[in-house]
Design goal:
By secondary structure, this protein is an all-alpha fold. Helix 3 packs across helix 4. The chain is globular, with a radius of gyration of 11 Å. The mean pLDDT is 90.
Length: 76
């Protein structure tokens, strides 16, 4: 998935699901296959904080898995 397409999807999801900038940032890394540890290191936060953000994202978007989140983002 190219960067422009990902940014467009995140912008649309942000508006529709009221995602914060940090949540969009985490989704972007997560979709690029970074794990919680890698995301935490890149953002200077704890792995637990990444997990909390992912949980909030899942609640906002009404999904239960990374696969469901990706399908929701691409509009499938």
């Amino acid at each position: 998935m190219n960067q422009v397409k990902l940014e467009d999807m995140l912008l649309q999801a942000s508006e529709e699901y009221h995602l914060t900038e940090r949540e969009k940032e985490i989704i972007g890394y997560w979709m690029k296959d970074f794990n919680y540890r890698e995301i935490a290191l890149l953002l200077g936060i704890s792995q637990n904080t990444v997990k909390v953000h992912i949980s909030r994202i899942n609640l906002k978007m009404n999904v239960k898995s990374k696969a469901s989140l990706i399908l929701r983002l691409i509009g499938a």
